[in-house]
């Protein structure tokens, strides 16, 4: 009994420490939520300078670094497909590459909801087609996982290089027409993994045409053909592609595009080449 009495003060002190930590966490969370609401109010009212001041003062975010907000009005408009609201926010100067705490951008949201018009507006405003979340998810992966052929094709037109040299601990991916990367996605799933699990062939064919690696493996060491439905048309196409070498024309196109690099792909029409060849290089 005396031992329990002696240990009780220490237990009470330990409990007080935990309570203090919890109180501090709740206070910081309250401050963060209050600042987010205040910033949201300023953005909606068009007072971008005050919203930027709050972000810079409390979060150290400069104008070129992206938004600190966990969920900005731009994210909401993109996720709900509200094109007019999206254009209004962009016209007010809101950052098209605003990120949440998980590095999710409005373009991620638009592609996840298959809102092609919103995605196109964001891309035209300078959205990063290669934006990667902390889980390694890109807009293309979202589009493929939702079976959105229209968003996938749009991203291919604005994309990045076919092969992305990732320097992040989490995997990446994307597709490639003006070069979107088609290699890596969530948990090392590539967009091709995501597309292979859908019943349609259009996205699968698009990704293969733009150089997706058919032998890429995820964390479970499964290839896209391994995650496709057994005896499905998708599985048969993947097996056929696996057994058939790419044509010399296709290999040359991929090589030329890789050599030029994504930032210069828009200059293809200025090359002294026949129009037919220019269209071929641009997948037209």
TrEMBL record:
Please report the stretch or stretches of sequence annotated as the SOCS box domain: 233-284
- What species is given as this protein's source? Hipposideros armiger (Great Himalayan leaf-nosed bat)
Q: Name one GO biological process term.
A: positive regulation of protein catabolic process
Cross-referenced PANTHER family: ANKYRIN REPEAT AND SOCS BOX PROTEIN 5 (PTHR24136:SF18), SOWAH (DROSOPHILA) HOMOLOG (PTHR24136)
> What's the domain of life for this entry?
Eukaryota
Coiled-coil positions are: none
Q: List residues traversing the bilayer.
A: 17-43
Where are the annotated ANK repeats, by residue? Answer: 69-101, 102-134, 135-167, 187-219
Similarity comment: Belongs to the ankyrin SOCS box (ASB) family.
Name this protein carries in UniProt: Ankyrin repeat and SOCS box protein 5 isoform X4
Which CDD domains does the record match to this protein? Answer: SOCS_ASB5 (cd03724)
This protein's encoding gene = ASB5
Q: Which UniProt keywords apply?
A: ANK repeat, Membrane, Repeat, Transmembrane, Transmembrane helix, Ubl conjugation pathway
Pathway-wise, it operates in: Protein modification; protein ubiquitination
